[in-house]
Amino acid sequence: MTDPADFTLVEAAAALRAGQQTSVALTEAVLTRASLTEAAVHAYLTIDRSGALAAAEAADRRISSGRAVGPLDGLPIALKDNMMTRGLETTASSKILAGYIPPYDGTVVARLREAGAVFVGKTNLDEFAMGSSTENSAFGPTRNPWNLDTVPGGSSGGSAAAVAAGSALAGLGSDTGGSIRQPAALCGLVGMKPTYGLVSRYGLIAFASSLDQIGPLTHTVEDAAILYEAIAGHDPLDATSFPGPAPSGTVRLGAGVSGLRVGIVNELSGQGIDDEVMAAFRTTVERLAAAGAEIVELSLPSTATALSAYYLIAPAECSANLARFDGVRYGLRIDGGTVDEMMSRTRADGFGPEVIRRILLGTYALSAGYYDAFYGQAQRVRTLIIQEFAAAYEQVDVLVSPTAPAPAFELGAKTQDPLSMYMQDICTIPSNLSGHPAMSVPVGLSTTGLPIGFQVMAPALGETVMFQVAAAIEELSDDIGRPVLEVVAS
Amino acid sequence: MPIEIDIAHVARLARIELSDQQLADYRAQLGVILDHAARVQELPTDGVAPTSHPLDMVNAFRDDVVSPSLDRDEVLSQAPDAINGFFRVPPSLDNE
After folding, report:
1. Are A129 and A94 contacting, i.e. CB atoms less than 8 angstroms apart?
2. Phi first, then psi: what are they for A342, rounded to 5°?
3. In-domain check, residue A239
4. Does B96 score more than 60 pLDDT?
5. Where residue A179 sits, what CATH number does that domain have?
6. HEC string of A286-304?
7. Is A310 helix (H, G, I), strand (E, B) or coil?
8. Does A334 touch chain B (CB under 8 A)?
9. Active-site annotation holds for A80
């Protein structure tokens, strides 16, 4: 019999409805799993055992009296620790916010609470979501449950590792340059970034506001679609929130790909990509063709410059957003004789090296004399990328590429060379710049037993067809199974 | 042309107090990253408008209704130093 900690959301919800499981039992199952794996994996910064069990008991009362509030009622879920949870410590993995207790819930947190979800705890991330390995955490790295010597990817590596290990049935991450999709690829999960504006950013600790989007990390495409639908929708508290209805994630699941046009982006599917990742990519494309999809090769030349544009736009926005951490209203304060001295010392002590690097980079790119050559030019390149994507989507329904250039790498392999770490996101960054939805689906294992992801990209508000294609890929691919967990005594 | 970075000035603008060694290290790292980032200058962009919001959205209005704000005491409980309902900070000017 399957351990309930390994259930999908759909399986768990069915077991609850059938009376075979209780929310308390599901929650106990993932808490037990966490107690066995956390000493080695370190997916969580905070586990809220008492809060989770109280929420599970409340869910069981609703369910047993026939008042369940929807498909997520009673299901244990992990939250990335850059999402505000009222009364529960929220740090963004930064020393500058250690001990911070938010006075409000972020919108996605509030929506999931109303949907009956049980929050297991807050997961580790690269500090302020800046990184691709979850090694840049002030509270220590997370390890990949598939191989503890390797990273889970990042920055949502804690949520990805928690779900892969069975310490939560699903998780939320945030994606600024690939921070949901790349860890999903490295941990053998489905990870999805919605169209910019579909999911509220209110209560998400901001990194780069024009790029950040919250999305699901799950075992299956259907689970991702259900979780996406629960968090998407207009929010007056976020001025960039899309005012129209959010597209359905579930309505075309199982409809297949016959007659759909699938575009291969040449610039994202060759140079710099590992051989095994390319082989898995080609196999998947062949399977899509055999299932009736029309395959088209396309060139999007501006995407070759996307990484450069991103490393101007994201640091510029981060340097402005992180100005709020100044030792005045919350978090760390290091004393100084003047307010300027206090702020400068607080920030030097509270931020880790990658965050300081990006704040300095962004401050430089926005400073007098360099603004137009760097930031202004990057924003114009962004326009070119959007125009090229728009032209491509006149020819095809979805675009595809590998998600990450290689399977999970070893801890420490890229920490001394920022640029090599940034290269992790070459295939994912274009969709953040364009604001379009994109997701990763697991399509196989490397010869060393590490997961490989496949990326599906769709036009703005094209979630329905994106989930449709992703579900077909899941159906056509060999099941990679679950990691063999090493239990380390804590 | 090597990119010119007055790193001490940038760190001052960013309000981050760094040692001379740290400044030198960050200047070297920023140089490498900016060399790569400067590739944006290779694309012709005459007449191309800059993008700040990827969807075609202009302004967001909400109904002008009063709603409760965050609880003041709960907010102030997170401040490093607060007094009489205010945040307290060191003087912003030298005493001299």
Report:
1. no
2. -60, -50
3. yes
4. no
5. 3.90.1300.10
6. HHHHHCCCEEEEECCHHHH
7. helix
8. no
9. yes
Residues 66-105 of A with CB under 8 A from B: 100-101, 103-104
- The distance of B91 to chain A (nearest Cα, Å) reads 5
- Kindly state the greatest CA–CA separation across chain A: 71
Q: Is residue B31 part of a domain?
A: yes
Q: B24 CA to chain A: closest CA distance, Å?
A: 12
Would A433 be classed as within a structural domain?
A: no
Cis amide linkage into residue A23, ω under 30° from 0 = no
Predicted local confidence at residue B24, as pLDDT: 97
Half-sphere exposure of A200 (CA within 13 A, CB side): 22
Q: Is residue B12 part of a domain?
A: yes
Choose the catalytic residue: A93, A132, A137, A155: A155
In a domain, B58, yes or no: no
For residue A486, the model assigns a pLDDT of 73
What is the pLDDT, as a whole number, of residue A419?
84
Cβ density class A213-223: b for 16+ within 10 Å, e for less = bbbbbbbbbbb
Alpha-carbon separation of residue A87 from A102, A104, B72 (angstroms): 6, 8, 15
CB contact under 8 A, B78 and A381: no
**Which residues does chain A have within 8 Å of residue B71's beta carbon, measured at their own beta carbons?**
103
Which residue in this structure is represented by tokens 């001052």?
Answer: B12
User: Quick check: B14 and A357 CB within 8 A?
Assistant: no
Is the Cβ of A347 closer than 8 Å to some Cβ of chain B?
Answer: yes
d(CA A2, CA A245): 37
Residue B17 belongs to a domain: yes
Tens of pLDDT along A232-283?
999 999 999 999 999 999 999 999 999 999 999 999 998 889 999 999 999 9
Output the average pLDDT for chain A. 96
| In chain A, residues 351-380 whose CB comes closer than 8 Å to chain B | 351, 356-357, 359-361, 363-365, 367, 373-374, 376-380
- The single-letter code of the amino acid at A171 is G
- Structural domain total, chain B: 1
Residues with Cβ within 8 Å of A67's Cβ and at least 6 positions away in sequence, in order, are none
Q: State residue A427's pLDDT score.
A: 97
Q: What is the CA radius of gyration of chain B?
A: 23
Judged by CB atoms closer than 8 Å, whether chains meet at B50 and A383 is answered as yes
Burial of A148 (0-12, 13-18, 19+ CB in 10 A): middle
Query: Considering only CB atoms, which chain B residues are within 8 Å of A429?
Result: none
Closest chain B CA to residue A346: B16
B56 reaches A (C-beta below 8 A): no
Cα-based distances in Å from A455 to A164, A211, A247, A347, B19 = 19, 18, 19, 37, 43
pLDDT > 70? residue A489: no
Q: Which domain holds residue A207?
A: 4-251
Pairing of strands A261-265, A398-402: parallel
Task: For residue A341, give how far its alpha carbon lies from the nearest alpha carbon of chain B (Å).
Answer: 8
What is the per-residue pLDDT across A21-53, written as a single tens digit (0 to 9) for each?
999 999 999 999 999 999 999 999 999 999 999
Identify whether the C-beta of residue A489 lies closer than 8 Å to the C-beta of residue A38.
no
